[in-house]
């Protein structure tokens, strides 16, 4: 298993798609850093005028805008990370079968279950490193370049949020491996991207249901989270991170801070479900691959 994990890790590193993803990530971070810097500078110039209307109002506005700016960075970071996880894992098994690269591997004394688990460990490791690095850089940019928008985050809560952010990739890789054992690379990628998109739309619909108090919309969002929990984990991460920000504004309803970035507290049941979800798809991937005739 560890041999396959090492090979998978090295294979992803040398793929052009990962190099392109790194370059695009750096471009995104540069854009976000410039936008954060100038947004903070522009706001700082107007702070004196706003404080005349009320210091508490100005501080609250600063908190809300800073939270939205950080959530924006993390939202699109999550989207980029998820797409990279899809592209890296959709053809992990199917691509090797199509190119006959898997034949010499299967002739070695390695079980098929070890190959699936090794692929998961290799892909999961590199995506975890990538996600945590991305998350940390967004936090640091907000902290040091945000000016008045730089949030004072609790260290322990930030660590918890980072772990949740990294776990999103794992809930994508497991079903990707399962699909890759049954379908071609193209078909697996299409299914995963559709499911990933449904997850975001479901989160949007659930947030809308919370805002207008419509149970039917909330239930639709919950069902989409059960089918593909990526967006649910993101919103849980956002809640953990933002609720640790400023004790003066704990009463602000984080669930009503916007349709895209609104947050709900992550229940222990949902976190357990995400782990169970990942394990189930790994089990299905192993059993499907064992039965497949190559």
Structure write-up:
About 40% of the residues are buried. The protein starts with a helix and ends with a helix. Helix 3 (about 55-90) runs antiparallel to helix 8. It is mostly helical. It has one domain (about 1-290). The longest helix is centred in the N-terminal third of the chain and has 37 residues, at about 15-50. The protein contains eleven helices and no strands. The mean pLDDT is about 85. Helix content is about 80%, strand content about 0%.
Short description:
79% of the residues lie in helices and 0% in strands. With 294 residues, the chain is mainly α.
SSE layout and pairing:
Elements: H1 2-14, H2 16-52, H3 55-89, H4 94-98, H5 103-106, H6 112-145, H7 155-180, H8 185-212, H9 215-227, H10 230-242, H11 268-291
Helix pairs in contact: 1-6, 2-3, 2-6, 3-6, 3-7, 3-8, 3-10, 6-7, 6-11, 7-8, 7-10, 7-11, 8-9, 8-10
